[in-house]
Amino acid sequence: MKKMNLLFAAVLALLFLVLGCVRNNDNSWPKINTIPYTPQITMSFHTLFADLATTSESLTVRAGSDTTIFTTKGTKLHFYPNSFEDVAGVIISTGIVNIRITEMYTIGDMIRNGATTMAGDQPLVSGGQFNLVATLGGNAVYAHNYGVGFPQPGPSSGAMFLYAGSTNGTTGITSWQASPDTSTGKKASHTSNDSSSIMPWNSYYLFDSCSTFTFVNCDHPFTTGCSHFQSLVNFSDTQFTSQNSIAFICLPDYKTVISNAFFYNPGGSSLNGSFYAPAGTNYVLIVMSNIGGAYSYCQSSGIIPSTSDSLKISANMQPVTKLQIISNLSAL
Hints:
By secondary structure, the protein is mostly beta strands. The chain folds into two domains: about 170 residues, Sandwich (Chondroitinase Ac, Chain A, domain 3), CATH 2.60.220; about 110 residues, Immunoglobulins (Immunoglobulin-like, Sandwich). Helices cover about 10% and strands about 45% of the residues. The termini are far apart.
C-alpha cells in the first residue's frame, strides 16, 4: 500500500509539472499559424554549461546616499537615498550594500549566461541586460527604486523599455515578462548623451525608475510583424539529445536570442520547436552539447524564410574545448 501511495503521489507531481509548463499566449503581436506545444526539455543550462558563464563585477554603495556608479562595461547605476529595502519592504538607510552585477551586451554573453531576449513566446530587440544581486550583512537587499543606464555604441532614435526577467527552474534559461512596464521612468524614447559617464561612450538608454534587481533588460518589441516558424535541428549522431544539448537562434541585426528551451523534443536525435521571427532576417544558429564533461559545438548561419515555413537545419557537432566555445561566442 505504501508503494501504491508513493506511485500515486509521483503521478500527481508529474501532472502538475506538465500543466505548469503550458505556454501563455496572451500577447498582441502579429502571429501566423499559431501552433500550441508543450515544452519537454529536461536539461538544465546551468548544470551543463555553468563553466561558460561570464565574470561578474562586485561594487559597494552606502545605503541612504545619492550615489552614481559606472561599471567597467559602462552600465550606469544611480542609487537614491530610498533605493534599497529589506524583505519586509522597509527602506534601508544605513550600511554598506554589496552589489554583484553580471552584464550582457552581446549575443555571446547572453548565451554564455543562458539568457534570451524572449518576452513570452515573442522575440525582442535588445539594448542589453544585466543580473544584479544586492546584499547587506549577508542578507538579501531588494530594490525600491533606482536609476539605470544602458550604454550603446552610438545614438539611436528607437525607443526602449525595461523588462523584468526570471529564470526557469527546470531549464535554467532566462526570459522576460510578456509586456514591458510603460509607467513613468521605465521608457526611454531615444538614447541620451550622459556627460557624467567616464566611459569612452556617452550614448545611453536612461531610465529613472527601475524597481527590481536580479534580471533587468533594456528591450523593445519588434515593430514589424513576426512570422511563425517550425524549426527542426537534426543531429547526425544519436548521442545528442534535448537532455544534453541546447540550441539558440540568434538575429545579430537586432541582438536577439531565441532558445530551444521553448521547444519540445518529440523523440529521436533532434531539437524540434516553434518560434517567431521577422522573415528575411539573417540568423545564426548556435548548438552546444555537454556529454559527461565533453563539449561539442556547431555554428551555422542563414536567412529566415520569406514566408511562414519550416526551418530545417543539420547540426554537424564538433568536439571542442570550453575555451573554444567562449572564443566563438565572444566573436558574435
